[in-house]
Amino acid sequence: MTKLSVNINKIATLRNARGGNNPDVVKMALDIERFGADGITVHPRPDERHIRYADVLALRKVLTTEFNIEGNPKEQKFIQLVLAAKPEQVTLVPDGHGQLTSDKGFDTIKEVDYLHEVIRVFKDAGIRVSIFVDPVTAMVEGAKATGTDRIELYTEQYAAGYAGGDPATAIAPYISAAAKAYELGLGINAGHDLDLHNLKYFAAKIPHLNEVSIGHALVCDALVYGMENTVQLYKRQLL
Questions:
Q1: Using H for helix, E for strand and C for coil, what is the string for 190-204?
Q2: pLDDT, tens digit, for every residue of 55-111?
Q3: Which residues does the annotation mark as catalytic?
Q4: What is the C-alpha radius of gyration for the chain, rounded to an integer number of angstroms?
Q5: What are phi and psi of 188, to 5 degrees?
Q6: What is the reported pTM?
Q7: Which domains are present in the chain?
Q8: Helix or strand (DSSP H, E) at 69
Q9: Which of 33, 36, 65, 64 lies closest to 235 in space, CA to CA?
């Protein structure tokens, strides 16, 4: 069954808006695990506007499910953080400095040499590596050449097409990209703008989907349904 990793960045955003430690990010992560999530995702950025580097190290000490750290490996501080925390998985995302949210995958063809080098650093430390990619078969083939273990399909395009009323067209490039990844022996993750409306269809159409990472929509839904119920609602979409 596809695993659900909950991105807790937005919980940290709420804490930082007021100062202090309410909500307690570490406690919330442990609660989310207890409510049935298969993993916790964080995406620390250099300005620490949501998840702080200290949060990452504190979480590493107590989490019992899979820990996934996302970020731009071109920031040396990020590499050092990941190597210190040693999560089960690191997801490489080509975010620019100060970027509001992720908006594209890596160009695995142009950056194959760089990615191959940095991926080896993480894999030598025993950390599974996933690369954020657009749903393009050439980019999946490029990812294979980097030595990554998995890809994470960037699903904003799918979510927009699904909301526009044409799910079959929206999912088509993802089916092709996922099929190529499976053929090449790569694991398949997915994330960005997946929610209670579009997740079930996506998971049903993408065989061999290992994991989805969901944060913003899930935290928004938790304001209405409560966190425990929301985690279970999302888990049910993946059955």
A1: EECCCCCCCHHHHHH
A2: 999 999 999 999 999 999 999 999 999 999 999 999 999 976 555 555 679 999 999
A3: 43, 70, 192
A4: 17
A5: -125, 115
A6: 0.95
A7: 3-237 (3.20.20.70)
A8: strand 66-71
A9: 36
